[in-house]
Amino acid sequence: MICKHFGECGSCSLYEMTYSEQLDMKKENLQKLLEPFYNENIKAFTSEKEYFRARAEYKIYHKDNSVFYAMRHLDKKAYVTLEECKMVSQPIQKRMWKLLELFNVCDELKNRLFGVEFLSSSTDDVLITMLYHRKLDESWMQKAKTLENELSAKIIGRSRKQKIVLSEEFVTETLNINGKSYHYLHYEQSFTQPNTKVNEKMIEWAVNQAKSYGKGDFCELYAGSGNFTLPISNLFEKVIATEISKRSIYAALENCKLNNINNITFIRMSSEEFTEALEKVRTFTRLKDIDLDSFDIGTILVDPPRAGLDEQTKSLISKFDTIIYISCNPNTLARDLETLCKTHNVKDAALFDQFPYTHHMEAGVVLTKR
Fold it and tell me: Which are the contacts of 82, defined by CB distance < 8 A and separation ≥ 6?
């Protein structure tokens, strides 16, 4: 990828390296982190080199009665106004510049606009959220409705204590996992994987590990809207999954319906709460209709935030035969492996390059009980 903003825009810090060089560096860094626990070759799952991001957020910069997309400068002291952005998906790409043109000929739409967020799918479904420092009224809604038609996109307007959904607040995604299609509703401002193609590879890797090493019933912590849970559920008779976000649980249940999957029990609780429930430290009214004792959990998948796993959760998952750990922060993954490898061995490891042109890495390991 060649971008005229390389060296200025803070989104791409590895702009001086070829993609192959970036990948080699990341793989070497991950290999060093995992060396105390795993000495085999780590497979790297690559990204497309451009048009790979399904999500994007831009600041809106105002100058001389015109507006521009802006990103923070590499030095973090200023902003760079953008003339191109080759990271974002083609569905976003073909709408974002037309949207900017329409902003600049309509005072109603650009008045006190400070940010725009895009969410797209591989099915060309796009949701655009426009952020304002003012109350939105009927006049704004009429103009924004025209935008929906002109851009073939869904529009949401947000300001303080106000959210206006003109049509729908989600995009519909279809992922191909080992030759089978899975359908997902991705809601505005909910967590979704940013790189669709790498996400498919990541799910396939997790499914294949569960197929090779899985035992008993399956459990997933930090399940989100079912990104991993749905495809993996086909391998198990019974599945239980937890997620703290109410919106994500709602989406996960909708996604089960979309895919005719009925063997997953979703619970809205944190991993810490689920640990307390399984170990009977506390009782929870939200579990009154769920018999946890009926689950013979042998395989667990965790996909925690950057902080990694808390001590209680590490203690809990170390009791299961198979652990699949997806990490967005290999440093905390390595820290957690110091505990998990007291009871388990790492059988496989992978690098998922969700964020080309940055130092960010995502990784996966599968562990089996000694």
Answer: 5, 9, 58, 68, 69, 70, 71
